[in-house]
Amino acid sequence: xxxxxxxxxxxxxxxxxxxxxxxxxxxxxxxxxxxxxxxxxxxxxxxxxxxxxxxxxxxxxxxxxxxxxxxxxxxxxxxxxxxxxxxxxxxxxxxxxxxxxxxxxxxxxxxxxxxxxxxxxxxxxxxxxxxxxxxxxxxxxxxxxxxxxxxxxxxxxxxxxxxxxxxxxxxxxxxxxxxxxxxxxxxxxxxxxxxxxxxxxxxxxxxxxxxxxxxxxxxxxxxxxxxxxxxxxxxxxxxxxxxxxxxxxxxxxxxxxxxxxxxxxxxxxxxxxxxxxxxxxxxxxxxxxxxxxxxxxxxxxxxxxxxxxxxxxxxxxxx
Length: 319
Fold this sequence. Notes:
- The N terminus is likely disordered.
- Helix 6 links the parallel strand 5 and strand 6.
- This protein folds into two domains: 188 residues, D-Maltodextrin-Binding Protein, domain 2 (3-Layer(aba) Sandwich), CATH 3.40.190.150; 117 residues, 3-Layer(aba) Sandwich (D-Maltodextrin-Binding Protein, domain 2).
- The protein contains eleven helices and ten strands.
- The chain is 40% helix and 19% strand.
- The protein starts with a helix and ends in a 6-residue tail after the last helix.
- It is globular.
- By secondary structure, it is of the alpha/beta class.
């Protein structure tokens, strides 16, 4: 992959180069976009502004259809049954991709028609305000003294919240206990209620909770401090190198006509590349990134390879 795309994973956008002409008779009815998470999650916050603009540019309604639970398997199953006609799309995440490493699944992400990536969200480790640890080192020390008693929330096995915690545990030599949830709202509630110890959340959701004093962030997974939160240290500067993030992209079912995928790709990339979307995401601490279909496919392969190593190191298999 081009070096610019690798840089974009932590802060630089990509320009789009033109695609093939679009189908003149598409679309003629509303389009739905499946989301494996519930309302208010990272895919919703970053994807909805794209869908609103996409509906305007296509002259039809483009609606978010939430299918949370089962680590994305519910959304993927619905997507696999959908006709390859451009009227059902999916917000793909590394959770869906990583599922292929964790269990037998009835889908192959490599066969889906990539349209474009649209957002990469760095992570922040959220803890309760009354957590005695003031930094990552103190949390690690506490976890070592209370082996297996420190709990972390995930959005299901194989989700970025799960794998980031595994990477954190493996890197620091601590043992954590997973507690799965269907959505981030429930995770935040349990963190604030003292029923959960930590959660790796996208910064777009974590930063407001930190600013409001409801929860606190001990570390960010960015390479450098974020301008929006200059007072918050990275994991790297605290001696734990786990730079990573959560990514989102739009895909169409296998076999969708090229004229339709080209039209959708062109429209999505124009929206994501716009100053309006770029600035809106920047305020949220999100990297807005538009890609060609080839760059998207290569990005997915490289990301899968990285997490395959983490999964093997942790002997993680769900079946």
